[in-house]
Structures are given as structure tokens and as C-alpha cells.
């Protein structure tokens, strides 16, 4: 009947005032301390040996003014376009969660918990207040902590797991990485998305296939891990680029001698699917035929020899 068209409907949709839309927007947080409760701010003030009296606004101002705490108040933000004004909002410098975790590691502190937990831990350790949770570190024969070249304590290494991972869970991790909440993306995050996803693929392959010893033991589980990791990329046809394939190449070279013709065919199929998915976007960096052919050729030759012997009359007489 009436064809408004998708774009013709948009002004009408957004021009209507929703019923009961008198609720005021919450004021924008100027710094991280404004997101904390009064009790949390008082904990940070105590840990940095500052006065804890006053209103919430006074506590925030005190934390932002002190040189020991102000650096944690500035929140790092990537540049993005405002949804309200449609204007470009530049990035904001500040400490990220990874930066704060690195500080904790350098001081030999645990890195678990929220940003508040980490900052409180750092302030307690710096000013000698309370008992901050310390990380397990390597110690010498005398019991003294072992430090690296920078003077930071060396974290105690956990015993490497050799448990076969849940392949479905590996695929799910990559799927979540692909379809993370795009409403929070800035332009730079969008550009880096493909790189982030393939970095996650490489990290999982490194941890599950190499660190757990499957590659060293020439266990074909290593290739199953590679397949599980790349499966979401193929099935969801995501716009991603082919980073991380060097690790897959290394896996094939390490465990290839254990493959049969059937195994090669199975893994060639998903590798070709990944390559086909990527080539649709002009990416030609997932070429692994040479690696597979290197192990397939001798098996084909052996198969031909077996077939020729079966059809040889002299060989049949010998068998009789």
C-alpha cells in the first residue's frame, strides 16, 4: 500500500517523543573516581595516607589533586563520533587496566580483581598500609625473591596443563571475539577488529597446542585445535584478515608425519574453507597446500605401489 522506504521512516521514528521520556540523563563522569562509592574512595584515601573527611565531591577533588592518586583518575578513551552531536570526540589519555596490571606485576602483587582492587593494592604497597595481596614469586635457595633485569619479582610458573581442551569452547571464545558489542566501537577499534580476532586465534593455538605439548608430542590434537579456532571465521564469513597462519603452518610441519591420507583430506577441507572465506576480501595469506602436499605425496606414492603390487600377476602367484 504505502511504501515509505527504510530511510523515509527514520525521521518519523526518531521525531516522536516517547511517553514518559522526562527522565534526565545522568551527568557525564569526569574521572574514574566519580564512579566509586564513598566507602571505596575513603579506602583509597586511607591507603595513600590522605584525609578521609568531607563530601563525595571533596573526596573526588582530593584524589584528583594528589600526585599519588591523580594518575588513576584519568580514564583512557579511544576517539569516536558522538551519537548526540555526530561530532568527532578525540581520544583521552589515561591508564588502562593493562597498565595498572603491569604496575602490580612489577611490584609482585596479584593482578586479579576489579580496577578498584588493583589500585587499592598498589597504593597499600606503595605507602605501607594494610596487607595487599602479593603474587606467588620464584625464590632462591636462600628464600629471597628472584627479580628480573628491571628489578621486578619473577612470577612463579604454574605447572603446564596437558589436558585436551574442549573444542566447542575454543570455537565459542573466537565467536564472542568476532561478535563483541560493536556499539562501543570507535573508528580505530573497528579498524583493529580483524587483527584482534586473529591475535586471539594465535594466542589460543600457542597456549593449547604448543604450551600443552601436543605439537612436541606430534599429537594430531594440535590440528584439531587449529580447526576449532578457525571454524567460527568460516561459518560466520566475517570480514577478517589472515594473520596467525604461520602458527598453523608450524603445527602441520610438526605433526604431519602422523597424518594419514584421510586425515590430510579432513584438514585440507577446513583450511580451504578459511582461505576461501578470506580471499573473498582480497586476502591471500592462508596458503598451506605446500605443507600438506609435503606429507601427502609420499602417502600417495605408497598407495600407488600397493595397488600396483596387488595387480601384478607374479605377485599374486607368490602369494598363492
Overview of the molecule:
- This protein is mainly α and 320 residues long.
- Helix content is 53%, strand content 1%.
- It is built from 13 helices and two strands.
- It has helices at 6-15, 38-47, 56-65, 70-73, 97-106, 115-127, 167-178, 187-211, 221-236, 245-255, 261-279, 289-310, 313-319; strands spanning 80-81, 88-89.
- A two-stranded antiparallel sheet has the order 1-2.
- Helix 7 (167-178) runs parallel beside helix 9.
- The model is unreliable at 1-17 and 237-242 (pLDDT under 50).
Keywords:
single chain; 320 residues; two-stranded antiparallel ribbon; 13 helices; 53% helix
Biggest sheet strand order reads 1-2
Amino- and carboxy-terminal Cα gap: 84 Å
Note poorly predicted spans: 1-17, 237-242
Shape: elongated
Helix content: 40-55%
Which structural class do you get from the secondary structure elements?
mainly alpha
What is the succession of H and E elements? HHHHEEHHHHHHHHH
Major sheet description: 2 strands, antiparallel
Strand percent estimate: under 5%
The total count of strands amounts to 2
Q: pLDDT average, as an integer?
A: 78
List the helices and strands and how they pair.
Blueprint: H1 6-15, H2 38-47, H3 56-65, H4 70-73, E1 80-81, E2 88-89, H5 97-106, H6 115-127, H7 167-178, H8 187-211, H9 221-236, H10 245-255, H11 261-279, H12 289-310, H13 313-319
Antiparallel strand pairs: 1-2
